[in-house]
Specification:
- This protein has 14 helices and 18 strands.
- The longest helix is centred in the C-terminal third of the chain and has 21 residues.
- The protein has three domains: about 160 residues, NAD(P)-binding Rossmann-like Domain (Rossmann fold, 3-Layer(aba) Sandwich); about 160 residues, Dihydrodipicolinate Reductase, domain 2 (2-Layer Sandwich); about 80 residues, Alpha-Beta Plaits (2-Layer Sandwich), CATH 3.30.70.260.
- It has about 425 residues and is an alpha/beta fold.
- Helix 4 packs parallel to helix 5 and helix 13 runs antiparallel to helix 14.
- Strands 7, 8, 9, 10, 11, 12, 13, 14, 15, 16, 17 and 18 form a twelve-stranded mixed β-sheet that branches. It has a six-stranded parallel β-sheet with strand order 3-2-1-4-5-6, sandwiched between helices.
- Bound molecules: NADP nicotinamide-adenine-dinucleotide phosphate.
- NADP nicotinamide-adenine-dinucleotide phosphate binds next to helix 1.
C-alpha cells in the first residue's frame, strides 16, 4: 500500500471515562467514519498507566503503558490525548506536534495554560491542534468561535461551563439542601470527584473561560489576572434570598472586553433572573451565550461532560484532522494575534446584590444610601425586611465598576448601623 493510501493511524492516549468511550465509538462507527473521512483509519495503540486492568471495547493487544513510544510510532498520524493533567500530557502533546503529528485533546488545564504556544508549535510543524471537548464537553463551542464567528467581533462570552457545581447549586435550589449535603450527593452519583476542589473552587471554570477568552478576543490572557471565586461559601440563605427576589444562583464564567478593549475574565457565583434561559440549565448541563457585534446574542446548550458526550466532540475533531490529512491541508490559524491587556475584575462593569443585617433605628437607610452615592453606585431596588434584631435591608444596584461596588461593600462593613453583611453576589443576565 502506498504511504498515501495507508490507513490513518491513531495513538489513543488514555482509556478512562473519555478514552474508553472514544475507543468504543471509533470501533462501532468505523465504516461510517472512514466514509466521511475518505480514507480508512485504525487505532495503532492505546496508552494507559496500568496495563493489567481489563478494558471493554479495546483489543488487549493494543494496550501499552509506554505512551511515549506509542505516540512516536511511525504508523501514528494523529495523537488523541486523554490522560489529563499538565505533566506527561504537556510533553506528549508538544512532542507529537513537533514531529508533525496532529493532536486532538480534551485537556482543559493544558490548553488554558499552553494553548497559544501549542498553536504556534502546530503551525510551525504543519500539524493540526483541536480541543473542542476541553470546554463544555459535547457542545460545539470552540469550532464556532474559531470558524463561524471569525468574521464577527465578539464582546462577551458568558455561561455555565462546569456540570459539577451546576449540579450542586441546582440541588441546593430545588431541595433546599446545604452545600455539604449537595456535594455529598453529587459525589455519590458520580457527578463530583473524590477531590472536588478544581470544580468547587472555580478553577475548572476559570481554565475554560481562559480558553474561551483567547479564542473570542484573539489575544493571550494573563492568567494571574483571572478572577476566580468558587461556590464553597454559597449558603442555603443566599439561595433562599435569591429565590425571594426572583433569582437563582449559578456559577458563571465570564470573558468580556471592556470599552477600552481590555480583557476581563471572571468566575464567580451570580444571581441570574429566574426568567433567564441560564436559570433553567439544570444538573450537569452546560450553556454558554456569545455576544457578537453583528450576530447579536447566540446560545449554546447541551451536555458538558460524561464519557460518550465528550467522545462525540473528540471524534468530530478527529474526523476534521483526518480529512485535512487526506486533503494534504491543515487548519492553520493564528489564535492570539492581538496583544490586549488583561485587567482584573475591578475593571468590569457589574451589578451587585447586597443583603445587610442592620440596626432597627431611624435614618439607617439614608446612611446606607449615602455610602453607595459617595462611590457613584446607584441603587436599583431596595427592600426592608424584619424588625428588631432581625432588621434587614436587601439591595440591588445598577451597573457600576466592580472596584467601586467592592469599595462600597467594604465601607458598609465599617458603618455602625450595619451589624453584618449577610450576603454579596454579582447579578448577571438582567436585560
Ligand atoms: N470525564 C469527563 O466528563 C471529561 C469531560 C471533558 C473533558 N475531560 C478531559 O478528558 C481527559 C480525560 O479525562 P477522563 O475523565 O477520561 O480521565 P480518567 O477517567 O481518569 O482516565 C485517564 C486515563 O489516562 C490514563 N493515564 C493517566 N495518566 C497517565 C500517564 N501518565 N501515562 C499513561 N496513561 C495515563 C489512565 O490510565 P489507567 O486507566 O491505567 O489508570 C486512564 O486510562 C482529561 O483531560 C479531562 O479533563 C473529561
Amino acid at each position: 500500500m502506498s504511504e498515501e493510501m495507508r490507513p490513518i493511524g491513531i495513538a489513543l492516549l488514555g482509556a478512562g471515562v473519555v478514552g474508553s468511550a472514544v475507543a468504543k465509538l471509533l470501533t462501532e462507527h468505523h465504516d461510517e467514519l472512514a466514509d466521511r473521512i475518505g480514507r480508512d483509519f485504525r487505532i495503532v495503540g492505546v496508552g494507559v498507566r496500568d496495563k493489567t486492568k481489563s478494558r471493554e471495547h479495546i483489543d488487549p493487544s493494543l494496550i501499552t503503558s509506554d505512551v511515549q513510544a506509542l505516540a512516536a510510532d511511525p504508523a501514528v498520524d494523529v495523537v488523541i490525548e486523554l490522560i489529563g493533567g499538565t505533566d506527561d500530557a504537556a510533553v506528549l502533546v508538544a512532542d507529537a506536534l513537533k514531529s508533525g503529528r496532529s493532536v486532538v485533546t480534551a485537556n482543559k488545564a493544558l490548553i488554558a495554560r499552553e494553548g497559544t504556544a501549542l498553536h504556534a508549535l502546530a503551525a510551525s510543524h504543519d500539524a493540526d491542534l483541536y480541543y473542542e471537548a476541553a470546554v463544555a464537553g459535547a457542545i460545539p463551542l470552540l469550532r464556532p468561535l474559531r470558524e463561524s464567528f471569525i468574521g464577527d467581533r465578539i464582546t462577551k462570552v458568558l455561561g455555565i461551563v462546569n456540570g459539577t457545581t451546576n449540579f450542586i447549586l441546582s440541588s441546593m435550589t430545588e431541595h433546599g439542601t446545604t452545600y455539604d449535603t449537595a456535594l455529598a450527593q453529587a459525589q455519590a452519583l458520580g457527578y463530583a470527584e473524590a477531590d472536588p476542589s478544581a470544580d468547587v473552587l472555580g478553577l475548572d471554570s476559570a481554565a475554560k473561560a481562559t480558553t474561551l477568552a483567547r479564542l473570542a478576543f484573539h489575544s493571550e490572557v494573563d492568567s494571574a489576572k483571572v478572577s476566580v471565586q468558587g461556590i464553597t461559601s454559597v449558603t442555603a440563605g443566599d439561595i433562599a434570598a435569591a429565590k425571594a427576589m426572583g433569582f437563582v444562583v449559578k456559577l458563571l464564567a465570564v470573558a468580556e472586553l471592556t470599552p477600552q478593549d481590555e480583557i476581563v475574565v471572571r468566575v464567580h457565583p451570580s444571581l441570574v433572573p429566574a426568567s433567564h434561559p441560564l436559570a433553567s440549565v439544570h444538573d450537569a448541563f452546560n450553556a454558554v451565550f456569545i455576544n457578537a457585534e453583528a450576530a447579536g446574542e447566540v446560545m449554546f446548550y447541551g451536555r458538558g461532560a460524561g464519557g460518550t458526550p465528550t467522545a462525540s466532540a473528540i471524534i468530530g475533531d478527529f474526523v476534521t484532522v483526518a480529512r485535512n490529512i487526506v486533503q494534504g491541508s491543515r487548519g492553520h490559524e493564528v489564535v492570539a494575534y492581538r496583544h490586549l491587556q488583561t485587567q482584573t475584575i475591578g475593571a468590569a462593569r457589574t451589578r451587585y446584590y447586597v443583603n445587610l443585617q442592620v440596626a432597627d433605628q431611624p435614618g439607617v437607610l439614608a446612611s446606607i444610601a449615602n455610602v453607595f452615592a459617595q462611590r457613584g453606585v446607584s441603587i436599583q431596588v431596595v427592600r426592608q425586611d424584619g424588625a428588631g434584631e432581625d432588621a434587614r435591608i436587601v439591595l440591588r444596584t445598577h451597573e457600576a465598576l466592580d472596584r467601586d461596588l467592592d469599595a462600597t461593600v467594604a465601607a458598609l462593613r465599617t458603618l455602625p448601623q450595619v451589624r453584618e453583611v449577610l450576603g454579596v453576589m454579582r447579578v448577571e443576565g438582567e436585560r
